Structures are given as C-alpha cells and as structure tokens.
Amino acid sequence: MESLNGRRPTVIDVAKRAGVSKSTAARVLSDAPNISDSAREQVLLAAKALGYTRNELAVSMRSGRSGMLGLVLPDIANPFWGEVARGAQDRAADAGVSILIFSSNWSAEKERMHLSTMMQARVDGAIINPVADQLGDLERFGLPCIMIGSSAERFPDSASIGSDIAQGVALGMDYLRSKGHLRPALIVGQRTRLARARFLRAVHEHCIKHDIDPVTLPVEDADYTTEGGALAMRRLLVRHEGGHLCVFAANDLMALGAMGAVRETGLHCPQDVSILGFDGIQAGAFAWPGLTTIEKPARQIGAEAVAQLLKRDVEAAQGSRIYLPCTLTERGSIADLRRKSMRDSVASGERR
Which domain of life does the UniProt lineage start with (predicted)? Predict the structure, then answer.
C-alpha cells in the first residue's frame, strides 16, 4: 500500500495514479455505467494500491441519502423481536445498507428519543413497531416509514407488514380442537395492548364458527413475559375445577412461564396441563417438554419491511398491509385427549 505521508487518499490521488481524470475516477468509484473496462481496471487497481475508501459522509451529503435505515422495536430482549431485527439486518446487508436498531422498551418517551436520533442521523427510511399514538417529526418531515406488529393498526394510512394473527389463532384453535381441547383457557396481554384485542377477536370468531360460547373460555391478563405467564397460570390453576387443563398463551414467553408454574405445583405437562404458545421463539425447542407453538414469520417480517423501503414505493403503498401467514410447530406440550379417550374406551371394553 502506497504511503501518502499519513493522510487519507482522495479521488484526486486515485485519478493521478490511474492516469485518468478526476471525474472518470469518481464515476468508477461510484460504480457508474458507461466506463471502459480498461479505465475501470486502472482506477480500481489504483484505489487498492492507495488503500482508498469512500468518504460515506461526504457521499451522503451530496446525494441526500445516508445509506442507513432505522429500526425501532418495542423490546429487543424478547427473542421474537430479536429475530425480526435479524431478518431486517440480513436483508439490509444484502443491499449494502446499514441499519440502526433501537429498543423503546414499550416507552413512548424512549420511542420519541429514538425517532429524534434517527432524524439527526438522516436515515433514509424507518421501520417501527409504534408505542405512541403519534410519531411527531417522522410524520411531519415525510420520512419513508413501514409499520410492523399489531400496533400498526393504529396507523391505517401507513404501509405495514405483520403476521396474520387471525389465521394464526385459527390455526392454533383448530389444532387444539383436533386434540380434543374444545375450550382452552387463554393467557393474553394487558388490556391497553392492541395485540390482546386482536388475539381475543380471532378466538371469538373461531368459537362462534364452531358453536361454542366464547364466554365459557377462562381468560387471564398478563405481561408478555415469563413472569407474567407464570402468575397467570397460577391464577388459572386456582380457578380450575379439575380434569385436564388446556392453555393457549398469546406469546411464547408467557407459555414458557406457564410451564414453569405447572412444574412448581407438582403437576406435569402435558399429562395434567397442555400448553400452546404463539411466536415460535427458539427457546421453546429447549423446554421440557418442547413447546408446541404457532410460529410467526419473524425474520420474514424484518426482511420484507426492509425490502419495501428499498423499493422506495412506500407512498404508493400507503394504507396497504401485508399479512404473512403463521405456521404450526408441533412438539410435546399438548396431550391428545381424543387418543387417550379411545384407549380408555378400549380398555373399558376389554374389562367388560
């Protein structure tokens, strides 16, 4: 690598070494078209020899683009949101774009602070699971934005991407029904959270479809955490009047917490209590028994949100929502009551 007395090499240095004009060197280094192969090769060899790297700040100031996107998540400690971030980061990296990741921790004040930081960083677009009802400067300055998560429904005029919650809940309820669990107890989020309403609405629709009164399903509110799930599970066990108990939790962290509470009381899953989760985080695979869950396409949500921003057609997509389907991941936390009932019937007949 050629020394320039400690200073950073410039486009002019590259042009001189390659024997071309400054404009030609600049066009090659910005990957512009219509450059002869020989000139391109000369410039690239000169840049490598000098150790030249682009001044991205200067480039962004000239182009009006920073080459960065912002991602604001509600809780990066929740593995589901970590997967969303991974999908967004991978897709951004494929496109040569950087992504700034923030966690609001469900705080509207922190969200405002992060949005302000993104504006100062001059990001080219933002992906947000909104906590606040208004996004202030982001809306006022017209920054391209994609909403994700259940909270996106509060912004009907914005483009958004998320899981198909209605389809996922129906998938879970159908699965439980196939195993003989017609009236599962529900562990859902706090009453202030839109995700809770969406989950319960989907359960209600499924019950009506199958001629079941949704009021007969026990419901416990909880934080979307393992601690919240454990507390809700203890309350359900106190209320339970005997027999096999089935629980459908609105996220996997609550489901895992519920499994822990079952063990604490000396009961067993799935022999005494069946538990179904919702999210598909990897921790469910390492629980004992493994957690059966409805898996949301977390990485796909993050990747698709970045892809939509990179298309630069967010304005044309205003008000549109992309619903990505959920899938069932079957492990060992659900008892098959119908098979058990059949075995009991056979055994009873043999005794007679």
Answer: Bacteria
